[in-house]
């Protein structure tokens, strides 16, 4: 052994000894070459004495190195080169040609299995040769009990090194394609079997890769698993363990991703997670269980050891069809389930805008998303993605304010399910609220949506025709009931259970808001938060209510009373007092109207002037307003027919007698009139405003009027008349022709359809324009301008003294000094709107956030 570590020891040897060593070494090299050439003749028996002789000379390690080097050269020459040549046609192909390989049914299965069989056969042959050397070494060192297993390890390392150093770039792709096709085939077999739960016996598989099949219904699937197992086993023996695992892992995850997309798709009305977890157990997890069993890995957990339970799955540790899984199988289950949750989560987040549009029909998709986020904790991804979708798809000039508000309400409801704490709703809702504050019709749309029968109830639970306000009231009652059950009437045991379920607020939560405030998400409060003040919302509702009541043709106000009662719950009775008086006016009007008709009708029937009255009292229903509590009424001069005027006068006198000293001041331009127009060949019925009725009734006296004469007769400006008379032209009742001047057209009644067809029909859009442009009550904006006009001189004087002032400074100064009547009580937003009007009138200008006088 001294010669191995001290080459200088050769100097002490005689020439005969050196000659014997060289002879033995040459003989060993010859035997090695003969052995590797697979010669089955006698030289194998001479290997032992030659090895023993060289070992006696201290050359044991040298001959081992030589033998391994010979094996390496032979392996490269006879196995590795041939192995890679099998794939040259794919490696040398272009990207388009490689795609053609992918669609071939038998590629790469045939070529891969054949190549692996050949190279593994060559490897086994060399391992047999290495065993002969090990036997020879053991016979020499049998007294020393030397362990030669490291020689096998060195050979395995040599095989892996040779293959990896010559590995083509595209070989991992070949493996991924192979496993992908095989797993798709396995999935198809399972689909053909209706995805029944697998019932495989959990007996241990033998370590010598002898695979047992216990379930005859799974014979074909087990045969496919055995084919895959042989390929994986061969790859492992060649040192491709990590590459093989990466390849079939990639194929499993691709198949799982495709399954998630197949189950989820664009149908948000069906829950997906349960079916997905069932499929994971039935296909990939069962495949891995069988594959690990075939490869001889542990497939069952130790019975005496505590089982490992997936924190991601709400299932017991024992998996159906598998039993208690091994640690490796549990790790796979964790990976598969997390990937499934994350993939489904990303899919639902990407379609969250559409999901919320379909809410509450899409509630199953929201529930799935909630569970996914609970496992992955990637709530920030939802917030960032959804805010981006809102800015790109909703918060644009092309979207109507009504659509934005409906989407906002649906967003609140959906995110309340995902995040009951409301933390992420705060982040998502802020861009919507900021955008809506910049729209002038936001308040009007909010009030309409709250009070209209179709406002916020499309597709939601509850009675058809319920307003959003009624729906929100039901939600508030449900939340209050749940809160009462949680906080009150619980015994000590329940209190402890509630304490155990307590969770701290997320780190993203606003510390200024407590958990109890955040737990109950008040949608109405969030809607009011857009406006900034409940007074503005109440004022807008008051205007809309007045418009609706003034245009009623009867006294049916049941729905308005119900809405008012709900608003009183949220805003208090004092805020809604004026609205309540308005509704009481209609109730009193109904009673007063019936009383006046009963008494006045008898006197009229017996009076001497009965024959002079052309209009019956039965057709008149008056709405008597307490003007101090109603919004400013739009007034317009109007001359009505004398018969109608006389009827109103009689009605007013009788009212004064009953309600003395109160008197009626008729708003002749307000209300509705039901007319029936009779022509030569037809009759037509209309419900119109008093102005329209006054216009058409003038044509009873004569069939044609010019614009100016008709306007003078009715008592209204000619331009207003031309705008209003377009309604009758659009209905084919009147025709327009050129008059004496461009501003004085001529209007003629259409007595028969032949005249109507001859003169043609005006655009029907005139009615819509008319309906939208004329209002009975001044809008909130008009009232604001009128109220703020009082402070205009003060603002101009302030800017004259100070030169420039910010919005906050003007607002605070007005609040400080304008304390007597009229008191300044406007919000910052209302002041900003008024200053914008002054800028449009070129009285003010704004630079760098400060206002100044226009120069």
From TrEMBL:
The keyword Coiled coil does not apply. Pfam families: ANAPC2, Cullin_AB, TPR_ANAPC2. Belongs to the cullin family. Gene3D superfamilies: Cullin Repeats (1.20.1310.10), Cullin, Chain C, Domain 2 (3.30.230.130), Winged helix-like DNA-binding domain superfamily/Winged helix DNA-binding domain (1.10.10.10). One of its GO terms (molecular function) is ubiquitin protein ligase binding. This is Anaphase-promoting complex subunit 2. Residues 526-729 form the Cullin family profile domain. Keywords: Cell cycle, Cell division, Mitosis, Ubl conjugation pathway. One of its GO terms (biological process) is cell division. InterPro entries: ANAPC2 (IPR044554), ANAPC2_C (IPR014786), Cullin-like_AB (IPR059120), Cullin_homology (IPR016158), Cullin_homology_sf (IPR036317), TPR_ANAPC2 (IPR057975), WH-like_DNA-bd_sf (IPR036388), WH_DNA-bd_sf (IPR036390). GO terms for cellular component: anaphase-promoting complex.
């Amino acid at each position: 052994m001294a010669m191995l570590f001290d080459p200088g020891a050769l100097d002490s040897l005689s020439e005969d000894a050196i000659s014997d060593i060289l002879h033995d070494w040459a003989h060993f090299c010859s035997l090695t070459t003969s052995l590797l050439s697979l010669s089955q003749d006698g030289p194998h028996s001479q290997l032992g004495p030659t090895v023993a002789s060289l070992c006696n000379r201290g050359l044991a390690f040298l001959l081992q190195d030589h033998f391994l080097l010979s094996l390496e050269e032979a392996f490269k020459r006879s196995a590795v080169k041939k192995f890679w040549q099998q794939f040259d046609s794919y490696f040398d192909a272009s990207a388009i040609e490689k795609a053609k390989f992918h669609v071939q049914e038998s590629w790469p299965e045939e070529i891969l299995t054949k190549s692996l069989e050949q190279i593994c056969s060559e490897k086994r042959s060399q391992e047999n040769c290495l065993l002969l050397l090990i036997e020879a070494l053991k016979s020499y060192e049998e007294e020393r009990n030397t362990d030669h297993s490291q020689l096998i390890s060195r050979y395995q390392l040599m095989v892996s090194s040779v293959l990896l150093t010559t590995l083509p770039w595209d070989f991992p792709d070949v493996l991924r394609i192979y496993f992908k096709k095989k797993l798709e085939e396995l999935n198809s077999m399972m689909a053909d079997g209706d995805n029944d739960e697998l019932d495989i016996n959990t007996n241990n598989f033998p370590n010598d890769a002898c695979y047992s099949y216990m379930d005859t219904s799974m014979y074909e699937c087990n045969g496919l698993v055995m084919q895959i197992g042989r390929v994986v086993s061969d790859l492992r023996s060649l040192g491709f363990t990590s590459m093989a695992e990466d390849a079939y892992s990639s194929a499993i995850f691709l198949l799982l991703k495709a399954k998630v997309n197949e189950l989820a798709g664009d149908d948000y009305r069906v829950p997906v997670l349960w079916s997905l977890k069932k499929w994971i157990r039935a296909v990939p997890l069962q495949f891995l269980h069988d594959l690990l069993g075939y490869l001889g890995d542990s497939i069952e957990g130790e019975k005496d050891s505590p089982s490992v339970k997936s924190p991601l799955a709400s299932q017991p540790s024992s998996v159906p069809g598998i039993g208690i899984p091994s640690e490796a199988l549990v790790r796979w289950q964790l990976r598969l389930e997390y990937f499934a949750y994350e993939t489904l989560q990303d899919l639902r987040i990407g379609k969250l805008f559409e999901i919320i549009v379909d809410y509450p029909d899409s509630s199953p998709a929201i529930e799935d998303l909630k569970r996914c986020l609970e496992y992955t904790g990637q709530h920030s991804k939802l917030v960032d993605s959804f805010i981006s979708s809102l800015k790109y798809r909703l918060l644009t000039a092309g979207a109507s304010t009504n659509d934005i508000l409906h989407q906002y309400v649906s967003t609140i409801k959906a995110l309340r399910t995902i995040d009951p704490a409301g933390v992420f709703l705060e982040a998502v809702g802020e861009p919507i609220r900021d955008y809506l504050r910049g729209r002038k019709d936001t308040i009007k749309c909010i009030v309409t949506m709250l009070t209209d029968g179709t406002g916020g109830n499309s597709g939601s639970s509850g009675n058809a025709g319920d307003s959003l306000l009624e729906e929100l009231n039901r939600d508030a009652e449900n939340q209050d009931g749940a809160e009462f059950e949680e906080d009150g009437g619980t015994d000590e045991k329940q209190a402890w259970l509630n304490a155990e379920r307590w969770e701290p607020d997320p780190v993203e939560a606003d510390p200024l808001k407590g958990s109890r405030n955040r737990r109950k998400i008040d949608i109405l409060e969030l809607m009011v938060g857009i406006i900034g003040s409940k007074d503005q919302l109440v004022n807008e509702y008051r205007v809309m209510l007045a418009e609706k009541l003034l245009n009623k043709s009867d006294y049916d106000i049941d729905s308005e009373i119900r809405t008012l009662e709900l608003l009183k719950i949220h805003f208090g009775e004092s805020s809604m007092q004026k609205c309540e008086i308005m509704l009481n006016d209609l109730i009193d009007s109904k009673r007063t109207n019936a009383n006046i008709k009963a008494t006045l009708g008898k006197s009229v029937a017996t009076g001497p002037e009965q024959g002079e009255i052309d209009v019956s009292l039965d057709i008149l229903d008056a709405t008597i307003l307490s003007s101090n509590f109603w919004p400013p009424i739009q007034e317009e001069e109007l001359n009505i027919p004398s018969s109608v005027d006389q009827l109103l006068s009689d009605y007013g006198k009788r009212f004064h007698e009953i309600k003395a000293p109160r008197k009626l001041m008729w708003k002749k331009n307000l209300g509705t009139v039901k007319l029936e127009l009779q022509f030569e060949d037809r009759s037509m019925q209309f419900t119109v405003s008093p102005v329209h009725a006054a216009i058409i009734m003038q044509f009873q006296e004569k069939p044609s009027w010019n614009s100016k004469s008709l306007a003078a007769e009715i008592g209204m400006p000619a331009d207003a008349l031309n705008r209003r008379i377009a309604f009758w032209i659009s209905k084919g009742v009147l025709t327009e022709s050129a008059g004496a001047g461009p501003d004085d057209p001529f209007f003629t009644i259409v007595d028969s359809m032949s005249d109507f067809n001859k003169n043609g029909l005006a655009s029907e859009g005139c009615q819509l324009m008319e309906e939208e442009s004329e209002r009975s009550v001044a809008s909130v904006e008009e009232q604001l301008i009128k109220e703020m006009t009082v402070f205009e001189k003060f603002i101009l004087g302030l800017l004259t003294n100070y030169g420039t002032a910010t919005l906050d400074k003007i607002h605070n100064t007005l609040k400080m000094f304008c304390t007597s009547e009229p008191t300044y009580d406007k919000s910052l937003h209302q002041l900003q709107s008024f200053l914008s009007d002054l800028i449009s009138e070129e009285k003010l200008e704004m630079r760098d956030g400060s206002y100044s006088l226009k120069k």
